[in-house]
Amino acid sequence: MYKKIQETASWLKERMTTSPKTAIILGTGLGQLASEITDSYAFSYKDIPNFPVSTVEGHAGRLIFGKLGGKDIMAMEGRFHYYEGYTMKEVTFPERVMYELGIETLFVSNAAGGMNPEFGIGDLMVITDHINFFPEHPLHGPNFPTGPRFPDMHQPYDCKLIALADELAKEKNLKLQHGVYVGVQGPTFETPAEYRMFRTIGGDAVGMSTVPEVIVARHCGIKVFGMSIITDLGGFDTPVQVSHEEVQQAANAAQPKMTEIMRAMIQRS
Ligand code: HPA
């Protein structure tokens, strides 16, 4: 696996004309940020050696390089979800490659179901912590030399970046929620009892991504900032139906706010 990662990193380095230190994973319905990248060049996942290929609707599958908020960045347009059938090593392959390319900070976005009764659809939630509910751990197996066998996780999401998000939100008069993201395998949305359970164990939102990528990024010493768009609500008195289309729609509606915060954060961090 390590050889494959290095092979992919070398292939990219030979073709890269910039040296980004910041990476962004653009989650569901956050394509707008991609369109704001200037001086850009991109590689389709299918053309990058050893890269998995994204299959889910709404995820284009490109690695984009360019400038955002005045900074050199790389962005993943489309990510690899465990529910698509990838192993955890495949899901987190891009973060391993990011480390080899010299990435120091990772911005992650996703769509998530809200369980905190204070939340509403369309809210943005800064991820302050997570609960790993995936059935396979991304660091299972021989340890990679990028980090210790038993990595510390006392602060997976960088507190300085969280403070910066709060400062920017105040300046821009945007409301930000904060909470714990529960990462689950999917592809089913939760039953009412599952939403209630995740709320009981300390979750504020639940989604099918992010946690594996964050664990591997932290194992590589990459700083992480994560934000969820609350696209649906679960676990309350009356169970409500959730659909992928609804999730996409809510994510699209909230994306100008998310884009504004992320752009400013990249600029200032
Ligand atoms: N559950 C899991 N994943 C999700 C949800 C949800 O309610 N909403 C968006 N992604």
Tell me the strand order in the biggest sheet: 5-8-7-6-9
Using DSSP, what is the number of strands? Answer: 9
Q: Approximately what portion of the residues adopt beta-strand conformation?
A: 15-25%
| Average pLDDT over all residues | 92
Structural class: alpha/beta
CA-based shape: globular
Named once each, the bound ligands are: hypoxanthine
Overview of this structure, please?
This protein is 33% helix and 25% strand. By secondary structure, it is an alpha/beta fold. A five-stranded mixed β-barrel has the order 5-8-7-6-9, surrounded by four helices. Helix 1 packs across helix 4 (93-101), helix 4 runs parallel beside helix 7 and helix 5 (159-172) crosses helix 8 (244-268). The longest helix is centred in the C-terminal third of the chain and has 25 residues, at 244-268. The mean pLDDT is 92. The structure holds hypoxanthine (HPA). Residues 111-113, 189-190, 206-208, 231-232, 234, 242, 247 line the site of hypoxanthine. Hypoxanthine (HPA) binds next to strand 5, strand 8 and strand 9.
Tell me briefly what this model is.
By secondary structure, the protein is an alpha/beta fold. It is built from eight helices and nine strands.
Question: Helix and strand layout, with pairings?
Answer:
Blueprint: H1 2-15, E1 22-26, H2 31-35, E2 38-44, E3 62-68, E4 71-77, H3 88-91, H4 93-101, E5 105-114, E6 124-132, H5 159-172, E7 176-183, H6 192-200, E8 205-207, H7 211-219, E9 223-233, H8 244-268
Parallel strand pairs: 1-4, 1-5, 5-9, 6-7, 7-8
Antiparallel strand pairs: 2-3, 3-4, 5-8, 6-9
The chain binds hypoxanthine.
Hypoxanthine (HPA) is lined by residues 111-113, 189-190, 206-208, 231-232, 234, 242, 247.
